[in-house]
Amino acid sequence: MSAIDVVDQQQAPAGSRVRLGGFRGLSREAKIGAGILALLFLAGLLAPWIAPYGQNQINFTDIYSPPSLAHLMGTDGAGRDVFSRTLFALRLDLAIVVLVTYPPLVIGVFVGAVAGYFGGIFDATLARIVDVTIAMPFMVLVIAVIAIVGPGVKGILIGVPLVAWALYARLSRSEMLVLREQPFMLATVALGYTTRRTIVRHAVPNLMRSSLIYSTLDMVANLLLLSGLAYLGLGAQPPNAELGSIIADGQSAMLTAWWVSTLPGLVVVLFGVGALLLGDGLSDGKLRGTLQ
Amino acid sequence: MSVAPEPVLSIEGLRVEFDMPFGRLVALRGASLSIRPGEIVGLVGETGSGKTLVCRSVMRLIPQRGRIADGRILFDGRDVLAMRPRELRDFRAHDVGMVFQDPFSTLNPVLRIGKQVEETLRVNFGLKKSEAQTRAVELLRDVGIPNPERRALSYPHEFSGGMRQRVMIALATASQPRLLLADEPTTALDVTTQAQILDLLVRLSEEGGMAVVLVSHDFGVIAQVCDRVAVMYGGHIVETGTIEEIHDGAEHPYTRGLLDSIPRLESAGRPTRLPVIPGVPPDPADEVSGCVFRPRCRYAQPACETVSMVLEPVSPGHETACPVRPFAVADSALTARAGARL
Amino acid sequence: MTERVPLLRLERLTKSFALRRTVGERIGRSQVEPARAVDDVSFTLHHGEILGLAGESGSGKTTLARCIIRLVEPDSGTIELDGIDVRAARGAQLRELRRRMQMVFQDPYSSLNPRMTVGAALHEAGRVHHRPGSENGEQFVREALERVHLGAAVAKRRPRELSGGQRQRVAVARALAVGPEVLIADEAVSALDVSVQAQLLNLFLDLRDELGVAILFVAHQLAVIAEVADRVAVMNHGRLVEIGDAGDVLANPQDDYTKALLAAHPRPRLSGAASS
After folding, report:
1. Domain at C8-262: CATH architecture
2. What are the respective helix, strand and coil percentages of chain A, to the nearest 5?
3. Which single residue of A213, B129, B148, C161 has CA 20 to 30 Å from A267?
C-alpha cells in the first residue's frame, strides 16, 4: 500500500517506504528474538571450539562448585563443567529441534496446499487424516515409538515428524481455501500456467509465512518435549549431554547446588523467549498489513 | 432575507497528520469550508485528496495514529474540537449524522434491523421500548423501505445494498440532525439504486432543513444533487463554487483536468481519447513546495513554486487556489489581481 | 457490414449456481430453482473490435467472462475461439487457448502476486509460453512495460510499492506478455480514480489500434463503456437483453432495462442547461 492508501482507506499503517526487505524491515521485537536465537544457535554450532571443557570431563575433586570464572555455570555432581555441557547439549538439542520442525513444515505446507487447492474427495480424505493425527495424544505416540525403536534420539526423530506435519497441513490448507479465490491466483490459471506452477510458485510462497511464524512456537514446544523426554530418561542417553538430562541430574542437589539445574533451565527459557519474540514480531507485521 | 444565515458548519484551516514509522503524513493541509443550513455541499476528490478525513474530523473519528494538528471546527458556533466526551457524544447523537460508504460492514450483522434502529432511539432519546419500536418503523418507512413492520424483523444480510444504505440513513437522521455527512454513500451501489438513494437524501434535506456534506469521487453524483461543490486535491481544497460555476467555468487546472477526464455517455459510437492529467496524485508523505498540483500542471509558472494554497475569489462564492487563472476570460481587474499575486 | 469470421463466438451459454437451501427446505425436499447466472447468452467478438458488456451487479457479466476462459465451467452452450471448441479442450490445448484470451481483473490490489517483483511476474509469463524474446529477460520485461507506458524501473518493484493505476498497467502488461488475441477486461478500471481511469481507457484504445487485440470490456458504468466500445451488449439477470452498435444502443435503446439504466445515469442539476 502506498502512503495514499493509508490516508484514504484508513487501514493500519504500511507505507511504501516502511517495508524494507530482509532483516532491517522487521519490527524491533522480531529483531531481538532473532538475535537471541542466532546467539543460541551459534553457541551450539561452535560448542566444540568454544567450550572450555569437554562435555564429559569428570573431575571428582571439584564437584558441585558454584559458578566462578573457571566454571561459568559451576560444576555438577561429577565435577563436569555445566557450561560446557550446556553448550554441547544445546548443539544436540537444537539440531534435533530443527530436524523435527522444518522438514514436517515443508511437507505439511505442500500437502495442505494441494488439498486446499483441489478440494473434493482428496481434500476431504486428507482433512480426516489430519484431524485424526492431531487428535492423537502426542506424547503417548512419541513414547510408543520410543518403546519400539528404543530410547535415544532416533525415537524422537521418527515420532515427532509423524505428527508434526499435520499441524502445518491444516494451517496451510485453510489458508489455501482463501488464497485460491484471490484474483492473482485466478490470473495464473487465466495465463495458462500449469496447476503445478500455480501451487508451487505462486501459492506456497504466500502460504509459507503463517507456517513459519507458527514454527517458532513449534520449535519451543519441541525443545520442551525433548527436554521433557530426556528428563524422563527417554531422550539422548548418557553420556551425551542434553538439556533435559542435565536438569534432571541436578535435581537431587537443587537445594545446595541450584546452579546445575537452574542455569541450563534458564537457557531453555531464553530460547523460548527468543522464539516467541520472533514469532510475535513476524506476525505483528502481518497484522499491521506490511505483508502486502 | 438579505442577511446571510450563520453557517451550520464552519471548518477553518483544518490540518490532519498521521505519525507513521517512516515519518509523518500530512493528509489534510489547511482545509477551510463553510456550510449554510439546508445546503447540500459536495466534496469531490480522488484517492488521497483528504475528502474522507474532512467528514471524520467533524465527527472526531480520526483513525489511529492520526491527529488534528491545527484548525477549528465550529458547529453552530460551538467549538467541536474543544468538546468534552459527554458533549461530544451528545453532538454525535443529536446534531450530526454520518453515513458511511460500505453498507455491508457498518450494520451489526447479528442484530435485527429494527433492533438497531430502536437502540439508537432508546439510548439517545430515552424513548421507552414500545415508543422506540413504533418510531423505528416510522423512520424505516420515511426512508422508503416498503413493508417496514415486517422488514424491521430482518437481519442485515437479508437486505440488498440499497436497503441497507437506507437503514444507515434512517439511523443517521433519526435525531433530525442539522447536518448529515455522507461519505461515498452510493459508491458500492448499482446505478439505479444510487439514483434512488440520492433522491432520498435530497428529499430529507428539503423536508428537514438538513445540511448535507456529500463526499464522492464521482462528479456526476455530486452534480446531480449538490448546490455547491468543493474540489479537493492533495489535502487541499483547490476550488469551490456552485455546480454551474464549476461545471461550466472551472478556474483551477486540476478541476478542469478532472472534469475533462470524466467519461461521457455522449461519446457512444465515437470513442474519443479522453484528455488525461499526466502523472499521479501526490504522496501524502511528501512535502511539495508551493502549489500541490504544480508537478502535473501544464499551466505552471515558475512563481507557482512559492505560492501558498489559499482560496481567492473569482466571483462571489466561486473561489480558486490557482493564481495563474489560465482560463479566465480576459478581464482587466482579474488579471491585474492575478498578476499582482505572482 | 461485411461478413467477418468472428474471433470469439458464444452460443447459448448457460451457467447456474445451486442455491443453498434452508433446513426446512431440505427436510421438505422442496425443489429450489438454481440461480441462473448466465442464461442462454450468445454473441460474437470480431478481430480488432471492442465490445462493451454492460450490466449491474448480479447481471452475470463477470460470470460470463469467467466462463469464456473456463475459470468457471459453463453448464451448456458453445464457446469457440477462432473456430476451436474451447469447452472440449484439455490440458495443454486448454492452456494454449487461454493464452490467446487474457483477462485483466478488477481489483488492482489482489491481481498481482504480492511476493513477486513486477519483472519476475512478466518474465515468467513470457517464459512459460516460450514467447519470442523471452530468453532475454531484461529486454523482454522492458518491452512489456513500454507497451503499457511504464518505465523500466518498475520491474524491480513489488506490487505494494505501486499505485492502483500502475498495478493495473502491470496486470495488462502481464496479459499482453503472452501474446493474446483477445483481452477480457473484467471491470478493469472500476476500482480506479477518474483521472487514472481515463489513462487506462486510452491505453486500451491504443492497444487495440497498435496491436490489433480484440477487447471484451466488462463494466457497470455506461459512460465508461461509451468511451471505448464499438458495440455494446447489455445483460440483466443473466440474459442478454440488447446488443448493437454503441451509438445505437446508448442513444436509442430498445429494451426497457437499457432505458432504465440510461435514465438512472447521474445528470448534472444545472438550471437552464439542457441535460443530455
Report:
1. 3-Layer(aba) Sandwich (3.40)
2. 75, 0, 25
3. A213
The answer, yes or no, to whether the previous bond of A239 is cis (omega within 30 of 0) is yes
The interface predicted TM-score of the complex, written ipTM, equals 0.84
Beta bridge partners of C234: C54, C242
Contact yes or no for A193 and C107 at CB 8 A: no
Estimate the share of chain B in helix, then strand, then coil, as percent rounded to the nearest 5: 40, 25, 40
Residues forming beta bridges with residue B16, ordered by sequence position: B28, B68
CA distances from A41 to A274, A275, A292, B7, C38 (A): 11, 12, 30, 68, 60
Closest CA to C63 of C30, C24, C34: C34
| Count of residues in chain A | 292
Residues of A in contact with B45 (CB under 8 A): none
Pairwise CB contact (< 8 Å): A17 & B47: no
Which pLDDT value is given to residue A4? 47
pLDDT tens for chain C, 276 residues long, are 455 678 999 999 999 987 666 666 666 666 666 778 999 999 999 999 999 999 988 889 999 999 999 999 999 999 999 999 999 999 999 999 999 999 999 988 899 999 999 999 999 999 999 999 989 999 999 999 999 999 999 999 999 888 889 999 999 999 999 999 999 999 999 888 888 899 999 999 999 999 999 999 999 999 999 999 999 999 999 999 999 999 999 999 999 999 999 988 888 776 543 333
In chain B, residues with a C-beta closer than 8 Å to the C-beta of C264 are 191-192, 194-195
Question: Cβ of B271 and C226 within 8 Å?
Answer: yes
Q: How distant, in Å, are the alpha carbons of A84, A220, B47, B191 from that of A273?
A: 22, 9, 43, 56
B114-134 CB burial, b ≥16 within 10 A, e <16: bbbbbebbbeeeebeeeebbe
Domain boundaries, chain C: 8-262
Centre a 10 Å sphere on the Cβ of residue C82 and count the other Cβ atoms it contains.
15
Residue C31: per-residue pLDDT: 63
What CATH number has the domain spanning A25-288?
A: 1.10.3720.10
Could you tell me where the beta strands, DSSP code E, fall in chain C? 8-17, 35-45, 50-54, 76-81, 84-85, 101-104, 182-186, 214-219, 231-236, 239-245
Closest alpha carbon to B104 in B54, B55, B155: B155
> Please, is C271 exposed, middle or buried when counting C-beta atoms within 10 Å of its C-beta (0-12, 13-18, 19+)?
exposed
The residue ranges of every structural domain in chain A are 25-288
Helices (H), B110-238: 113-125, 129-142, 148-151, 161-173, 191-208, 219-225
Tens of pLDDT along B36-57? 999 999 999 988 899 989 999 9
Q: Is B286 on the interface with C (CB under 8 A)?
A: no
